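hey can u run this one w/ adenosine-5'-triphosphate bound, need the structure tokens asap thx
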Amino acid sequence: MIRIALQSKGRLNEKSLELLAEAGISIDGSGRKLLSQASNFPVEVLYLRDDDIPQTVSCGIADIGIVGYNEVMERGYPVEVLQHLEFGKCRLSIAIPKYLEYTGPEFFEGRKIATSYPGILKTWFREKNINCEIREIAGSVEISPSIGLADGIFDIVSSGGTLVQNGLTEVEKVMDSDAVLIGNSTLDDEKMRIVRTLMSRFTSVLRSRGKKYMLVNVPNDRIEDALKIIPSMKSPTLLPLADKGWSAIHAVIDESDVWEKADALKKIGAEDILILSMEKLIL
Ligand code: ATP
Ligand code: MG
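ok here u go:
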């Protein structure tokens, strides 16, 4: 049995549970209890504030956890980053009021920045040899310059809309972040085996996201051209049709390429293009 720490509520909660569900793990009473067991996999879920997940995993109260990479970096506890999970994407950036002229990192020499991520920012300024006063605040960081608390802010940015609303301009991106699976660094063999199974299921789920399954009928003399249009993961499946002179090609393609590939295939005489959703991609 392993214990996984998940955010109890907030931006990563739903996506983390969704990932477990897609990996075939059913959790009873998700989110209502502090601790819930899976009915069909040797894992129990511990629901926590995201701030507490790195420490909980580092000291072994949970074996693994899902948390923003930014929290892992900020807390600085020794944990293994096992897998990037491709959701919760954002960046951590420095922004200043838009009427100020930015001259580079030296701009901040002797100035003040408000943030909820003092650790990451301190390291960034230390590497650049700049003395900037860091004011740690828990929330509403974006209003700090307008109330005179700081000259700039350091915070999570995704679309940048909040910055614009507050008259701020992003001037430095300090790091990119996404949700990561972290692990305690001293897991025994039995726990490691369970963690590996879980990771390979996560890999399958992540691989199938954004993919479609394409079936297309192609005249035999155009198969070579068709294969140039749809390069597949290994080799596409080629099946003869009852109608001699025609074959069906099956391939996995990126969802974003569907229309471009379908148009190109039609141009070389392909017919009956069928696009299906991909449930799982287990390699
Ligand atoms: P908790 O109550 O668990 O402490 P929180 O308020 O600290 O939650 P959330 O706002 O739920 O945290 O964000 C959790 C994580 O989601 C962030 O640490 C970050 O990794 C990620 N994230 C992705 N996009 C955004 C965004 N636009 N704003 C804030 N966080 C984001
Ligand atoms: Mg938090």
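The radius of gyration is 25 Å. anyway lmk if its weird
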